[in-house]
Structures are given as structure tokens and as C-alpha cells.
């Protein structure tokens, strides 16, 4: 085997650099897709959380009404005894 010439070594280095840049570009594209998907999932989760908070508030209000009605019914039963 002969020793590569400086030009051959330079060409090989350029090819390795081009391959590394191409791999970086592919990785960047994949990561951007993953980030976009993660952002969409986060936005969906935030919307679901907002809905759950609204539902919780409504259920809490209903529970308060039921509690008051039960307290009144208990008081009526106590006074009837």
C-alpha cells in the first residue's frame, strides 16, 4: 500500500466532513419533528387540564349544593324528633 497523497487525504477529510454534516442535518430534522410532536402533546394536555379544572369547579359547586341540602334535611329530621 502506498501512502495517500496530501490531496487524497484532504479529499477523504472533506468526504468525512460532508457525511458528518449530512448526519447532523438528518438528526436535526428528526429532532425538530420530535419537538413539534412534543409541543402538540403539551398543548393537548394543557387543553385537557383546563377542561378538567372547569369540570372540577362545576362538580365542586354541585357538591356544595348537595352538602347544604343534606344539612337542611338533617336539621329538619333532628327537629322532627
What does this structure look like?
- By secondary structure, the chain is mostly helical.
- It contains 1 helix and no strands.
- The protein has one helix at residues 6-80.
- The longest helix has 75 residues, at 6-80.
- The model has no long low-confidence stretch (mean pLDDT 96).
Pick out the low-confidence regions.
none
Shape: rod-shaped
Q: Helical element count?
A: 1
> Ends: how far apart?
111 Å
* Quantity of strands, as a count: 0
- Fraction in beta strands: under 5%
Overall helicity: over 70%
Descriptors:
81 residues; single chain
Give a quick summary of the entry:
With 81 residues, the protein is an all-alpha fold.
Describe the SSE topology.
Layout: H1 6-80
Amino acid at each position: 500500500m502506498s501512502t495517500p497523497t496530501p490531496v487524497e487525504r484532504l479529499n477523504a477529510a472533506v468526504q468525512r466532513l460532508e457525511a458528518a454534516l449530512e448526519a447532523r442535518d438528518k438528526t436535526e430534522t428528526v429532532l425538530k419533528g420530535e419537538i413539534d410532536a412534543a409541543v402538540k402533546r403539551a398543548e393537548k394536555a394543557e387543553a385537557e387540564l383546563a377542561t378538567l379544572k372547569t369540570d372540577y369547579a362545576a362538580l365542586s359547586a354541585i357538591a356544595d349544593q348537595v352538602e347544604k341540602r343534606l344539612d337542611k334535611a338533617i336539621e329538619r329530621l333532628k327537629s322532627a324528633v
